[in-house]
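Regression check, magnesium ion case 355:
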Amino acid sequence: RGHLRLEGVTKRFAGDVNAVSDVNLDLERGKLLGLLGPSGCGKTTTLRMIAGLLPITSGRILVDDDDISLRPPHQRDFGLVFQNYALFPHMTVAENVAFGLDMRRVPKAEARRRVAEALELVRLPGYGERKPREMSGGQQQRVALARALVINPRILLLDEPLSNLDAKLRDEMRREIREIQQRLGITTVFVTHDQVEALTMCDVVGVMSGGRLAQIGTPEDIYERPASLFVADFVGRTNILDCEVLNGHRVRLGDGVYSCAATTIRPGKAKVAIRPHRINLTPHRDRALLSTSTNSAEGRVLRTTYVGDIVQYDIDIGGPTLQVETPTHGRGLAVAVGDKLLCEWRPDDMLVFER
Ligand code: ADP
Ligand code: MG
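Current build output:
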């Protein structure tokens, strides 16, 4: 129960704009999929099509091999949570949570029991008689979650549910939602523009760009093996630099020639991506210690920025400027503007993409 498949799902609004183009994905039951992408890339449109709130232009949506593409929302048995909670202000918390049960004509006594269970699940036992406005944003979002879950939905759909919460609460709610999702084993699609949210909460991440699924994979796939420059740039911090491919494993970057991860991109101009925290800084005099398989470049520190948990350095390596990050503690390297240092990084951490 709850295996979700999208086949060529497309949405064209009036005016010939494809808001979503040919989205294909297969989500195993019980898994949490994050749809990640910048504003306007088609996340909400995709979610609304899955929910049945928006008709699809072409393609198919299947749940447990059952084609539900044309089924109205209330017959899909999906639970929905939105960014703005969308609670009914004049109803109590219990009435809000019971809404889906009343619609389904669940007997009163059973409804009362299930509402109490759902409020227990979201850690709001005893809050049933309150009005939404008497509760904090985080509590209101928990009520919305209880309302979505009380019907035992086949699939849970969440559209940026944490975006209205402050950072600390958001972090807490991420864990809580993930915990509930795993406990219930409920197939879930979670829309977010926040890469940390997608990487930390999800089993599978689908990165969207311009209405298309740019890449789908585990958080590690997405972060370590981005399929395109867009994904490398959007997920995590990355140096993106102009380079020239010399052959399948060598690139020129400014004045230097370096080893890169194996590439099939033909010789010529390209882009290279290197994560700032994958670059090590060592004092100039340690050069003899470097292994030959590691890239190294002499650099001059242009700028240092203290960020708390990390320090960021802008380093001129003879043409391009590299951004490098090191943890604040544990390195013991005192670096100041103007210092000369060696930057070193592994070929595998140097990914080449078409321009
Ligand atoms: P996201 O949720 O990723 O921010 P949306 O799915 O809301 O993006 O929107 C994707 C694209 O579709 C945007 O360009 C948006 O302007 C357009 N769009 C969304 N809803 C409509 C609509 N009802 N009519 C016309 N265009 C729309
Ligand atoms: Mg949206």
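Comparison notes: The first strand starts at residue 4 and ends at 13. The chain has two domains: 4-233, 237-353. No diff flagged against the previous build.
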